[in-house]
Amino acid sequence: MDIGQFKTALKRHALKATPQRIAVHEAMLSLGHASADMVTETIRQTSGTNVTVASVYNILTQLSEIGIYRHRMSANNKMYFDVNTFRHIHIYDCENHCYRDLVDDGLMDLIEAHLGRRKFRGFRIEDIDIQLIGRPTRRKLPVRKG
């Protein structure tokens, strides 16, 4: 969602395109998946604007509540936000605490078809959110001196 689309989405939800919201969105566009700490640091480095982690977190939460971002809790108990709201799977790197998108429409079709036939007593399923947890398979080799 580019800045123009972002402003339109804000307007649709009766929100103003404040400089802080725009700065948060620009940071999220560059990061993809990020915590409030990461977005705050990116804003400080790129624009020199002094923002607080709390205000960035509040903006990210508000934007995820209206569907501009999605959010998820990581294994290190940090809330991460995702600019990609399309159907996809996440791979969570539990060593480096970061996310990678896995787009596999065939797999998602199979899962949705299988679960679509099932009934879960007392629940109406609204969404399917799949997260795979893994570790990098390639280790960085130590730098040899000399």
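^ that was protein a. below is b, sequence first then the tokens
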Amino acid sequence: MDGFEIKYSKHFQHKLEDLFAETDYMLRYEKGTFNAGYCIIHDKKIILINKYYALEGKINCLIEILRVLPISIDVFSEKNKDLYLKLSNQN
């Protein structure tokens, strides 16, 4: 897992979105004035990300959310489990 590098590309963003697709949370890009660039509505399991953020900001938000959400690793497919573990072990 050492040497894992976050790539700021549309392809990597889609990989992160694929992780969220396997959870109970719905990911949406909306306009808004979120202090952190995103908002999590836990009781409805909705994640809102500022759609006007640059690609790097969106990716950073997605990674941060993955690290703070209580997600069981069992929900992920094998390929996504590996990515999730790599991301959750980054500082």
